Task: structure prediction
Amino acid sequence: MSMRITNSIMNNNTKNNININKLNEDKQNTMIATGQKITRPSDDPVVAIRALRLNSNISQSNQYFDKNIPDADAWLKITETALMQTDTVLAKIKESLTQGASDDNTPEDRMNILADLRGMRDQIYSAGNADYADRTVFTGYRTGESLTFMDAENTLYNIKEEFSADNISMIKHISGDFDVDKTGADLGTPINQQSIEENTLYRLRLAYDNVSYPQDATLNYKDNGTDTPVTLNVVEFADDNAYTKPATGATLIAETGEIILSDDLRDKLQAATTTDIYLTYDKEQWQKNDLRPEHYFQCTDKSAADPADYIEYNYTDPDGNALKHFVNQKISYEISFNQTIEINTNANQVFTHDICRDVDELIAATQAVIDADNKLDELKKMAENTDRYSEAQIKEINNRVEAMTKERDLLADKMQTLFSQGLTTFDGYADRNNLALTAAGATRKRVELTKERMQEQLASFKELADSNININLTDAAIDLSNAQLALEAAQMAAGKVAKQTLLNYI
Result:
């Protein structure tokens, strides 16, 4: 069966062909004008979907490359700088320790060592307050708080401090210390070399001195798996029996923050496991540069008048789950696709309480030798003043010279031992600081390598995105020219077809 072709059909087909060529020309013209292959997703769904994915990759890469990576790198750089400053302070302290461990120090040398130690003591934790964009870098999630108290203040904290058997240390205490009475009025009490004794004791040292306690001071530990409380005998620092080994239990010297252990309790604590030993105490008076307890312990700020307003620290995690012990807080940055790094160094990894506590003991030991030297000089001058003192008094003064000489020698030996041991101890602190510095440096190197990789990936994504959505102008110009020629040819053919009618064929 054949179909009859009418003029109307021919005209409609011709118009349709012309319209198709016009649409093609318009499409090519639009592509050149916009520089893109499509103007709407329906033009090419595959290109559209691929463009969305590539644009998403570019957006994420820009976030990593322009924001996350520079932010992480700056944080790590600030951390490295602070740790290098701390290393410098520790190195200067070790120089003083090396000098103090010598047998050849004069009183003037000791005064210089004392001045150096006091100066360095104030600098130990200063680097720990380093911040990046008003965020303190060593304080975990509490980036809005300083590591130390910036000024002296009175704020009552209830602190739970945990110990392990490794925290038990041996100390030597020189007993029999006496004052020099230049008037001679107090020379009736005999003092001789036998009055001066050196005691070896074992202790637990708290993170802070000048502490108090809410009720009975109780040290807790596990004895064969059973929770065992020990009520501490609290004594004053000035008490002659403060540094006497207790027969049982333990003694708390609140002013110095020391727990003096009996032999029996020491043996039991040495058998206890880590965190099984703890003491809860209060501290209210804080000095400038003291470490804030909320960065180290489970504690409660009880400065508010209403107990409902007390602030608890480290008893729950960010999700509200109860914590048994203090847990380090990790700050992580996502610096690439599925790559997250931990950028922060926690304060207790470097800025520990024992650093300043050790320096304080070195300062006290040095000051004790200086004071003993001064007392010995005064007694020797008194012994030469035969016009002022009687023969019996001169005899007693000479006894005291011998006693003070013994005390001074014991104190000097104690000081020299502390300085010698301090070299090893502060080498450990420096090693710990260098370990943190190395870790920060290694993390920063990872960030730099990731930055280079992200830069390459970003360039690749942009190149893929360009090739996916953008046109080649040369090819597009040729296609437009071809479309124009096709349109013109169609229009010419239409003109010829329009002149023909059925009458031409009759």
User: Anything to note?
Assistant: The two ends are 22 Å apart (CA to CA). DSSP finds seven helices and 15 strands in the chain.
